[in-house]
Amino acid sequence: MVAKARAKRMPDDEAARIALEYFNPEERHKLADLVDWDLSTSGSDTEEIVRAEKRAAARAWRALRHAFARGLVTVVRTPRPLLDETLSDQLRDAFRNLLSVQVVNLNHLFPKSQKEEDQRVFDDKVHQELGYATAHWIAQGTLFQDHSTIGLGSGRAVYHTASFLKHFHVLSARDVTLMSLTGFVYARDHADKLGRSLEADTHTALMVGCFSNQVRAYTIPFPIAHPTHNALQQTRRKALLDNSQWSELRPRYALFGVGVLGPGHRLYEEAKAVKHEKHLEPLLDPLKALVSICDRVRNECGDPLYYPVGDIANQLFYIQGPSSIQVQDQHRLEITELISDINSRLLTVTPEQLEDVENIILIAGTTSKALAIRELLIRERFNIRFLCTDKLTAAEILKYPPE
Length: 403
Fold this sequence. Notes:
Elements: H1 12-19, H2 28-34, H3 46-69, H4 85-94, E1 100-104, H5 116-138, E2 149-152, H6 156-165, E3 176-180, H7 200-208, E4 215-218, H8 229-238, H9 243-249, E5 253-256, E6 258-260, H10 266-272, H11 284-301, E7 309-312, E8 315-318, H12 329-343, H13 351-356, E9 359-363, H14 370-379, E10 384-390, H15 391-398
Parallel strand pairs: 1-10, 2-3, 2-5, 3-4, 5-9, 9-10
Antiparallel strand pairs: 6-7, 7-8
């Protein structure tokens, strides 16, 4: 008959505490302290010390097994992103408004095929990697200062930044305010794997848990589209986006992605859809007209990387492009008029409010967005001080330096 020892059940909080501690053989004394083994009482008896360390380690391993089995802890890899310092320096030299640039080398990523579905999955993975790199950088703790307001936009890059950030060391900035800067756009990732979790309100909620001190959080629980200017102004007051409230809460920092009005973009897909989202119906007529003319312009210009319309914080803007791209004056006029019409119905920060943000952190990648990013950088209308992009996109931006 073989006797089997029964391990004593360990309390969840104790198991989690021990399991979350990183330790190696050189750190066994620290581990022994955590599991209440007093190694100092053994005097100079080396064998007793070794036996005590082994007992402590055995208890810790039981804690690890218990904690993982009950789902109390998870393992998250936090390696350093692979950065291209040369391209980072070149972008800073070309666009002097930038204080810091992270160019992430994503050579290990490539689409499985040229099929649209595989391209969308690849596109989402790029944004996931950029979000991780941005979170890794923010987690160093030197960016966000005490008494700051941090604004958050919608989209994949901001979602992944906020989602990954909670796995790093908590930020110690005090008296921080978080605020959504755009209404619900019913955003999705391009491969539709994450569902509708890419809203600014979601990102604000995720960021709350990234600070060690208490923070204030303001959300915008309203759809982005409004049928009339008067209806929009009434909602802006409720959403703390009217000018009087904005002047009090004005963000010192804001995290945004960049979009282009093409396949995968929420508004582009809505214009092309057979069944439409009810809350986006106020935009439908001008949006369909805008998408139609943008498709025509793209076909005429012949550059697969040129999209006439981009967006930041869901504010649409015209992309002039380099001098090699020629757009008919009539088309340009129609596009800018439709952009103005659509923007006037959107519950989001205005261009004038974007100008008030002291430090915009732009997280954007894939070569389809290179000219949109370039447009924002050369305008210098907005204070884009930090940029995180991928290596291929950085190289594409640098093909067309400021003219």
